[in-house]
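Example record

Each entry pairs one chain with its bound ligand, magnesium ion.
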Amino acid sequence: MTTDIPWSELQKRRLQDLNGLPDMSDSTFASTAERDASFKKQERFLTDEAKTKLNDTMDGIRRPALCQMESILTDVLIQAGFTQVTTPVILPKSMLAKMTIDDEHALSSQVFWLDEKRCLRPMLAPNLYVLLKDLVRLRKEPVKIFEIGSCFRKESQSSRHLNEFTMLNLVEWGLEESDRHRRLEEYAQLVMDAAGINDVHLEHENSVVYGDTIDVMQGELELGSGAMGPHFLDGNWGMTGAWVGIGFGLERLTMVHEGSRNVRSVGKSISYFNGVRLNL
Ligand code: ATP
Ligand code: MG
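Structure tokens for the complex follow.
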């Protein structure tokens, strides 16, 4: 008699949707009857838990964790001397070209095109470059700005990737070159503290767009990517000088803070509300 019957694919997906325990996914059973009974019990337990969470949200704070995260980070960055900006989601192709994202570029296959000349922005950096050029001209340095807004990339299915996600990008332009590393670390820490996330470390990476980058990691999960200048892209925007910047994915920060295992459940969605799958 076989004693190692696993969950069916359908059962596994349902338990995952309901935010079931990860250590349950490898469970095996002596018979399908035993497995199906166990599934029913788990499903009932997780459904009750999800309903409680839904009620807590709607009777309590009445905001999804993603929106709360955005508010908290906005307040903290303004307190730290950054100015908030907000820019268009629709991006001209010429601006992507200035980021050196042409048809041969690795990121180019991830871009959502609206027509031949316009796409949905895959990142905030092009708009921030344009704004900074004027702000640095009109203001005494340093200029510290940030934007929080939707970005779009065609991604393959993953628990860490969404086609539409929320980027927080902060930039300080016009600091001492010798201060850049320290400042990047300081800003990474500021955002992590505000997001209530511990146990992060910085990792040196090589990005297809930004060259050498410093990633903010929790274990294997990338939460943010930092870069600094003078940088080979700056000339395309008519900019000179030293700068630091970091881009964070707000769904990833929210996922870690909430202890979810999937960005989908905390992101913009009509299937989930604040981490709760609605087909309960
Ligand atoms: P990854 O290597 O994990 O795909 P990336 O290096 O391509 O990420 P960046 O371009 O560095 O991503 O973007 C900055 C941050 O935005 C990432 O650290 C991540 O937190 C977030 N991010 C990027 N792409 C996505 C996505 N498709 N869905 C959710 N968050 C994302
Ligand atoms: Mg990155």
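The mean pLDDT is 94.
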